[in-house]
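Example record used in the benchmark description.
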Amino acid sequence: MGAVPAGAARAARARVDSALADKQIPYLRSGIINAMLPIYEVLDQNEVAYSVVQGELGKTATPYYYKADLGELAESLGKNSEALKWYAESYAESRGAATRFQWGARYLSSLLRLQPDEPERIRSVASEVLGELDGPDRIYRRARTRLELLDASLRDWNQAAKGAHQDVLVRLRDRLQQICVKIPAGDPARGSCEAFLAGA
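Model output (structure tokens):
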């Protein structure tokens, strides 16, 4: 992608600044922030976006949403330690069963990318995140897709280490199987659950 022409960049930035200057009700403002992030990325101004989103933390009742964004922004800027801190905090503060698994999966994925040589930390976090699926109607729709993505990411992580983390995969499969047995046989969620790291 080529550079955005200077005039278009100035106009886009002016529109963003104008929108952020206005006062909005919280749910509307969060939508504006979400719409703003890709614009800053196209303008190659993620450092500015990082500062803007940090400034929003004290203005929302659900800062964990913004902390996940901050994790992605910090990672894009090469600030890996900060990124992991934001991802960890976003998961720790998240609320609601589906949300906790979503934010936990994001945190776990960041560890696999940014700290792949810490298998015990990865195992511990993964075990906790999988525990978010322990309850009725937890492995459906987006949660099922995220579980499949975690399966692939964990397998890739182990393959990149030439199988050195096989024991971690086995323990994580066993962890989820403790949850699978509580799901009625024949339920589609049971199949998705039992497929996790199958053969590991």
